[in-house]
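Translate sequence into structure tokens.
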Amino acid sequence: MADNKIIDGKLIADTIKKEIAAEVAGMIDKGEGAPHLAAVIVGEDGASLTYVASKERACRSVGMISSVYRLSAKASEEEVLNTINFLNNDPEIDGFIVQLPMPKHINETKVIQSISPDKDVDGFTLHNIGLMQLGEPCFLPATPFGILEMLKRSNVEVAGKHVVVLGRSNIVGTPISVMLSRKGVDATVSICHSRTKNLEEITRQADILVVAIGKPEFVKADMVKEGAVVIDVGINRIEDNSEKGYHIVGDVDYKEVYKKASMITPVPGGVGPMTIVSLLHNTLLAAKKRK
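Result follows.
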């Protein structure tokens, strides 16, 4: 029997994938061709390779074309920028992502800002970030967009609620705080970080707690209000003696917090699948705009 407390990101993502697949099939029937999503990956970061492989599988599952441009960890910044320039100008590519982190000798900001805003399906360029801040149509960052969609499809009332966001990264914490406070979503948002005083007092006020702090099982039950909705964005590999050699935990102490929360996302199987499906959504959007 389904547990109504658990927000099943995989289930929601599968539903959205079916909707996207139907739209892609319609485009192919009209002779417009399938949307094409590319990824650039520099080096052999394990988590990045896993993410790119799951993106490729997701593309196939909805009928999209997927390609990966792999560069060695020793590739120069110029080589990376040349690859991006090629993708910006390739009429076959609707959107692409540059997988982070990159090797230390490459300036990530310079690389990301060289992506054409029309193909920036991660929503990381200054152009798209500016439009997001103004509430204008744009490519929204995949993880925050996935969280909003997850809340909406789980019938979580957001308007007028106090949302506390733990973490202020440019990838999750900052954009989700902006998106939640915008007209039409209408949450009241507090953003907390490593320098926040009386952190537990603030998190205990949250009707909805979004945790993206990058510390394994950081949020304990005494930091959470009874009946709060808890969204755990964290993905942390913990080494163990299993066959894989590790297991994955979130930024929330799931077993303990589960008892107090009215709804909670598991890790894995919560926010992760929603991030990938948001990327597919943005690629579909890019293809429609271009066609």
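Note: The chain has ten helices and ten strands.
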